[in-house]
Design goal:
Length: 106
């Protein structure tokens, strides 16, 4: 099974939606652009957001098992996917990449 690198590419915050709809939170998202996680197969990396994992895990599992070419040519690199978490107030975009056996992981 391949390892999969998850890189935080972008975090968007919709302050207007937060002000109108969200209850105040003491703790929101901890992700930072450029942050990298490496999955050992399809296992959730330590410190990775549970909610974000629900969004990316089907793609991680597919890449870890050698799958590629999501949606018939969607990505330039067929062994990757760009997936966002399901937080409607502060979505995070993640680049998922299958790693070759001898690739540097972080």
């Amino acid at each position: 099974m391949k390892k999969v690198r998850i890189t935080v590419k972008r975090i968007t915050v919709y302050d207007d939606l937060i002000a109108e709809y969200e209850n105040p939170l003491e703790h929101a998202c901890d992700m930072k652009p450029g942050q990298v996680f490496v999955c050992n197969g399809w296992e959730k990396p330590e410190g990775f957001c549970d909610s974000a994992w629900d969004s990316v895990s089907p793609f991680v599992m597919t890449l870890a098992h050698g799958g590629e070419n999501f949606y018939n040519g969607w990505m330039k690199n067929p062994k990757s996917a760009m997936i966002s978490c399901n937080d409607g107030f502060r979505p995070v975009s993640f680049l998922l990449e299958a790693l070759e056996e001898d690739a540097v992981q972080e």
